[in-house]
Design goal:
heterodimer; A: about 100 residues; mainly beta; 3-stranded antiparallel sheet; about 0% helix; B: about 160 residues; alpha+beta; Immunoglobulin-like; 6-stranded mixed sheet
């Protein structure tokens, strides 16, 4: 089942800011289960990409120091109302997701 | 004209040959050869210098006032520490965020194609730590940091 995502745009310091939230455990692979004492396998988003009108604008590699349910923000200096923005992500287990919206400052 | 083209072609072929030889000799690590690949070595690093070296092959950092960090001075919940960085440095290619006291400090490696020098996320912080930002701009690495006091840990207690 696809993971829940949210996307929104807003104007910040004269630019369009895109914020995206992915509901994801971001397991570090360093924690142990308190009962079984077994290590909980790592499961975290490794890559998140933002496309502005279908062109790659920015990409970020993420590690385990990013919180659970990541809320990531990027800014697009050339974006304007009505432009299309899309965010895609992939994790270390091969899961992927995407969401898009139309810019509304 | 024809001679020029032939020369350029030859140069290109020789350069490609050198890269191939280097790659087959194991001199180029996969992370560098394929820019889009997740840089595993840097993310597995246990120290800041090591992580930066893993990303760029160099770790000469210049402190900069042109990097602004927006984060709390004290966080009650180390599992979700809001953190934002913006920079007025020109021609920003990368922004990195590193939590010094975490087991794996590198939190993010952002690559700019056509976006502003801005990145925000919520960080996990195991304990009170400096959080470092590294910005690659004009072929140089600039840095800034902020000390964030954590009153409750973020890595599952």
């Amino acid at each position: 089942m696809a993971r829940k995502m949210k996307i929104r745009t807003r104007t910040q310091e004269g630019m369009i800011e895109v914020q995206v939230l992915v509901v994801h455990p971001m397991e570090t692979g360093l924690r142990k289960d308190k009962q079984t004492k077994e290590t909980i396998p790592a499961h975290f988003i490794q890559k998140i990409s933002l496309y502005h009108n279908d062109a790659l604008a920015v990409e970020a590699d993420l590690g385990i120091s990013i919180s659970e349910d990541p809320l990531i923000g990027f800014r697009l200096p050339t974006a304007k109302d009505g432009d299309k923005v899309k965010v895609t992500w992939s994790d270390n287990k091969g899961e992927t997701g995407e969401i898009d919206t139309v810019v509304e400052g | 004209m024809t001679t020029m083209k032939r020369r350029t072609f030859l140069k290109g072929t020789i350069a490609a040959g050198v890269v191939l030889a280097a790659a087959s000799a194991g001199l180029l690590r996969p992370a560098r050869a394929l820019a889009a690949e997740w840089p595993e070595g840097a993310f597995e690093s246990r120290g800041i210098q090591e992580a930066i070296k893993g990303l760029y092959g160099a770790s000469d950092l210049t402190p900069s006032d042109a990097i602004q960090i927006k984060a709390p001075l004290q966080a009650e919940n180390g599992a979700q520490v809001p953190f934002a960085v913006s920079t007025s440095l020109p021609d920003v290619k990368n922004i990195n965020v590193l939590v010094e006291a975490n087991a794996r400090p590198l939190a993010a490696n952002m690559r700019v194609e056509r976006a502003a020098g801005f990145f925000s996320a919520r960080l996990k912080m195991a304990k009170t730590s400096d959080v470092h930002v590294v910005v690659r701009s004009g072929g140089k690495l600039y840095t800034a940091k902020q000390h964030i006091k954590v009153t409750a840990g973020g890595c599952g207690g």
